[in-house]
């Protein structure tokens, strides 16, 4: 009986709850499920992705990029003005008015300043009075001369009739001749007075300071009330000029070339100048002259260079770098415009010339083109493409804007 009871106990079902699974097991199970999902998605994307249209490509080349002239020598120098003057008055005087400012443009003969004209006006008035007195004296002598001529003529007729003595007649003739000489002297005095009046007028005009040539004022040196003089009076209290003007049309470049390299420079040689202030601006120029003298201390020879472009940005004393060229640099107007594109890359779509440019994500962008001249197997494109881009050759009809492409293997036609 005990044995049967033991057997029945062994056949009983144990209904106690099982222990819960561990947290680590749960995380492992979740990671496996996520990995299976991601691998499945990647496999589906790889199998279902668009392989793209197989095409051949070619680069777009900018025109005029290979015509850069060769530099045989580089040098540095400065912009200088061939016509620059510190303008002063011809006479010493007190400044009454200054009509210029720095940066102002003046024309030839334009008034820059005026001096106090009191002394000059007084001299002119005195000369005018002396001229008037000389002219009035001429009238008085002329009246006396007419009377003397009449007396001499009358006595001449009477002396023939022996009605007057010959001595009276000779006295009348002498008086007439003396008056004639006095009239000539008075007229000369009047001429001298007229010249003095003209000189006095010039003295008044010298109180007005005018620009000797057209240019730009770069310095204003005097103020109203100061004394200026064409010669320095010493002591530092007397100005010697009103201001300094520069003819901007006379600007050129002066550079010092080493003696060892001066043989490479020739007159009329093309030059490309670059201002330190504008390093991206290339200014065409040419050699004007090689100064026939060397600097013993620096072992250099000075070279004058004329700038072929006039621009307000070019001012005196600017630093400049120059390159002496073998041939003239092509002007921007003379260089070919646009880019060079293979003719096979250009097709007609919807009545216009188009090409397909390759993007970074293996897609193409449709570009409308404005074409130019034929260049052998290539074509000039004026707008629509830029140098350095890549275009599709022989684009198929199924290729459109935004289409995905893949590169054909070498030697394999698409």
From TrEMBL:
Q: What is its main location?
A: other
| UniProt cross-references to InterPro entries, sorted A to Z | Beta-barrel_RND_2 (IPR058792), MdtA-like_BSH (IPR058625), MdtA-like_C (IPR058627), RND_pump_MFP (IPR006143)
- Keywords of this protein's UniProt record, alphabetized? Coiled coil, Membrane, Transmembrane, Transmembrane helix, Transport
Where does the CusB-like beta-barrel domain lie? 253-325
Give all residue intervals belonging to the Multidrug resistance protein MdtA-like barrel-sandwich hybrid domain.
83-229
Q: Where in the cell is it found?
A: Cell envelope
Q: Where is this region: Disordered?
A: 386-414
- The residues forming a coiled coil are 131-189
Any stretches that span the bilayer, and where are they? 25-47
Using the record's annotation, list all stretches that form the Multidrug resistance protein MdtA-like C-terminal permuted SH3 domain.
340-394
Basic and acidic residues compositional bias, start-end:
403-414
Question: Which superkingdom does the taxonomy of this entry point to?
Answer: Bacteria
Name the Pfam families on file. Beta-barrel_RND_2, BSH_RND, RND-MFP_C
SUPFAM superfamilies from the entry? Answer: HlyD-like secretion proteins
Q: What is this protein called?
A: Efflux RND transporter periplasmic adaptor subunit
Question: What lineage does UniProt assign to this protein's organism?
Answer: Bacteria, Pseudomonadati, Pseudomonadota, Gammaproteobacteria, Lysobacterales
């Amino acid at each position: 009986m005990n044995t049967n009871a033991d057997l029945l106990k062994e056949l009983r079902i144990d209904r106690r709850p099982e222990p819960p699974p561990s947290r680590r097991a749960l995380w492992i199970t979740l990671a496996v499920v996520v990995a299976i999902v991601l691998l499945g998605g990647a496999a589906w994307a790889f199998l279902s992705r668009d392989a793209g249209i197989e095409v051949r490509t070619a680069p777009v080349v900018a025109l005029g990029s290979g015509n850069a002239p060769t530099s045989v020598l580089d040098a540095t120098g400065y912009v200088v003005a061939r016509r620059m003057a510190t303008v002063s008055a011809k006479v010493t005087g007190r400044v009454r008015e200054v009509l210029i400012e720095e940066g102002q443009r003046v024309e030839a003969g334009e008034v820059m300043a005026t001096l106090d004209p009191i002394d000059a006006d007084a001299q002119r008035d005195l000369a005018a009075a002396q001229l008037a007195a000389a002219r009035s004296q001429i009238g008085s002598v002329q009246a006396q001369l007419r009377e003397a001529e009449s007396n001499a003529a009358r006595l001449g007729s009477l002396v023939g009739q022996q009605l007057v003595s010959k001595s009276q007649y000779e006295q009348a003739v002498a008086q007439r001749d003396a008056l004639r000489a006095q009239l000539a002297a008075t007229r000369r005095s009047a001429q001298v007075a007229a010249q003095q009046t003209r000189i006095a007028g010039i003295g008044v005009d010298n109180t007005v300071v005018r620009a000797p040539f057209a240019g730009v004022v770069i310095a204003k040196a005097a103020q109203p009330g100061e004394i200026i003089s064409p010669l320095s009076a010493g002591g530092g209290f007397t100005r010697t000029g009103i201001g300094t003007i520069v003819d901007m049309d006379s600007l050129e470049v002066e550079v010092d070339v080493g003696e060892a390299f001066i043989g490479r420079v020739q007159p009329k040689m093309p030059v490309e100048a670059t201002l330190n202030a504008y390093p991206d601006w290339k200014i065409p120029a040419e050699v004007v002259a090689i100064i026939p003298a060397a600097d013993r201390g620096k072992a250099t020879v000075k070279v004058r260079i004329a700038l072929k472009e006039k621009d307000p940005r070019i001012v005196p004393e600017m630093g400049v770098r120059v390159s002496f060229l073998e041939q003239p640099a092509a002007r921007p107007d003379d260089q070919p415009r646009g880019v060079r594109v293979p003719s096979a890359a250009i097709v007609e779509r919807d009545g216009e010339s188009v090409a397909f440019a390759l993007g970074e994500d293996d897609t193409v962008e449709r570009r409308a083109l404005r074409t130019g001249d034929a260049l052998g197997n290539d074509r000039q494109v004026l707008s629509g493409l830029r140098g350095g881009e890549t275009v599709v050759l022989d684009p198929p009809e199924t290729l459109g804007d935004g289409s995905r492409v893949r590169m054909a293997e070498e030697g394999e036609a698409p």
